[in-house]
Amino acid sequence: MKNLQLAILLTLFIISLATHTILPLNYLSLSFATISLLIGVYMVWQIHKSKRLLDFILGGIKKASLSDYIVIEKAITTTKSMYTSIQNHDFKNRDEVIKKLNIFLNENKQYLGVWAAWEPNQFDNNDALNINKNGNTHGQMSPYVYRGDKGIEVTYLEDLQNEKFYTRPLNEEKLTILEPFHFDIDGQETLMTTVAMPIRKNGKAVGVVGVDIHLKSAKNIHLNLLDYSTSEELDLERLVYTLKKQGGQYAIIGQAIQVLKEERSEMIEYLVNTTTEVSKSTAQFVNIAKQSSISANEVSSAIVDIASGASSQANETEQGTEKVELLGDIIEKDQLELQRLNELIIEITVNKEAAERVTHDLIKSNDTTTETMSEVANKLLKSTESTKKIERATDGILTITEQTNLLALNASIEAARAGEYGKGFAVVANEIRKLAEQSKQFSEGITKDISELGKNSKEASTTMKQLEEIIIYQSSNVNNVNDKLIDISKTVETMKDGITDLNHSGKQMTSNKGEIVAIMQSLSAVAEENAAGTEEITASIEELTGHVDKSTHSSEQLTNIVEQLKKVTDRLKV
C-alpha cells in the first residue's frame, strides 16, 4: 500500500513539473528527504531521456555522412579481438600468427590490412634465425597481411622505431587512433588511418597489433564521435561548434544539442549534490581498504619468510636423504665383505682337508724326514697363530657391531625427537640395527669356525710330533703340503684385507652419523623459525579481520543508499 502511494505521488509530482501546476497542500507534509529523492529521480529520468535523444542524433549523423567513423569503431573492436587472441594464444611458430591475421582480414572486407609487430627478440628470441627468410630481411617478427593486386599478401614492416603507427601505442601503452595520413599503396596515394594497441608481456609493452583503414571522406578524426572505452567523455561544446560551422541541417542539429545541454546542466548539478553521501562513504571505504592493504603486505612478508624457511628446510632434508643413502651404501658394502669373509672361511676349510689328506699320504709313505715334519709342525704353529689373529679380528668385528647397534639406537632416539621429519630416518636406523645384529651373528659363527680350526690344528700338531720319527717320505707329497700351506697363508692375508675394509666402513658410518645429527638439528631450528612466522601471520590476520569488519559496515551503508535509489528508479520504469 505504501509503495502504491509513493508511485501515485511520484506520478503527480512529474505531472506538476511538466504542466507547471502545484500539488495539493496535504502532500506537502512529506519529509524533505522524500521530496529530494523524488526530484533526483525526475532529473535522472530527464538526463536519460536527453542522452537517448543525443545518442539517436549522433547515430544518425554517423550513418548519414560519417561512414568512416562506423568503420573505425568496427576496427577498434577488431583490434581488441586481435589483442585478446594474441595474448591468450601460445603460438608454436610464426606461421600461426600469420594465419590468425589472415582470418581477421578475410572477415573484414573494409580493412586495407592487419598487422602485428614485436620488439626485437620478444616473440620467440629467434630473430637472427629468420633473417632473409620468407622475405623478412631483418628477422624481426612484424608480419603485415594486406590486400594487394594478387589478393591477400604478406610482407614485413621495417624501420618500426621511426613509424608513429608503432611507436605511439607502444610508448603511450593504450589503444591509439592516428590522425589521417596519406600512404602509397600500389603507386596510389591513399588516405588512411590506423587503429593500434600494445601487446603486453609480464605487464610490459613488447609489441603492437593494428588495423589499417582506407578513409573515404574524413580528413580529421573527432574522437568524441567514437564509442570506445579509452575515449574521454563527449565534448558537447566542440561538437556543437563543429555542426554549426557546417551550416544547413548540421546547424539545426547543433542548436538542438545545445538546448539539450543547457536543460541537462541543472539536472546534473543536483544529481552531483545527491551523490555527496555516496562519495563520503566511498572515501571511507577507500581509507579502510588502504589499511587492509598494509596488513595484507605484512601477511605477504611473513609468508615470504615462511616460504624461504620451507625452502631451506627442503634443502637440508635433501642433504639428509643423501647422507642416509650413502650410509645405506656403506652397509651394503659391509654385507658384501661379510659374505666374502664367509667364502674365505670355506676356502680355508677346503684347504685344511686337502692338507689332512696329504698328511695321511705322508704317514703311509713313511718317507718324510724328521726335519720336514718339524717344518710342517712350524707351519701349523704359524697357522694357529694366524687363527688367533683372525679370532682377535673377529672380536674387533663384534665390537664394531655393538657400536653400530648403539649408534642405530641413538639414531632412533634422535629420529623420535625430530617428530614427523624423523620418521624416515627412524626406519633407516632400525634397518641398521638389524644389519648390525646379523653382523654379530655372522661374527659369532666365524668365531666358532676358528675355534674348530684351532682344535684341528692342535690335533694335527700332535700327529706331526708322532710322525717326526718317520724317515722316508715321498718328496712329491712334501711339495704338495707346502703348496697347500701357501694357499692357506694367502687366504688368511685376504681375510685380513676384508677385516680392514670393515673397519674403514665403520669409521665412515660414524662420521656420517654425526653429519645426519647436525642436519636434523638444523631442521629443528628452521621449524622454530616457521613457528614464529606463523605467530606473526596470526597477528596480522587478526588485524586484517578488524579492518574487514569496518569495510563491511561501510559497504552496507553504501549498499543501503544504492538500494533506495534503485527502488525509486524501478518504480519509475513501471
From TrEMBL:
Residues of the Methyl-accepting transducer domain: 288-545
InterPro entries to which the protein is assigned, alphabetical: Chemotax_Me-accpt_rcpt, MCPsignal_dom
Domain of life: Bacteria
A single Gene Ontology CC term: membrane
GO biological process assignments: chemotaxis; signal transduction
Membrane-spanning parts: 28-45
SMART domains in the record: MA
The entry's keywords: Membrane, Transducer, Transmembrane, Transmembrane helix
GO function terms (MF aspect): transmembrane signaling receptor activity
Matches recorded under PROSITE patterns: CHEMOTAXIS_TRANSDUC_2
SUPFAM superfamilies for the chain: Methyl-accepting chemotaxis protein (MCP) signaling domain
Family designation: Belongs to the methyl-accepting chemotaxis (MCP) protein family.
Protein name: Methyl-accepting chemotaxis sensory transducer with Cache sensor
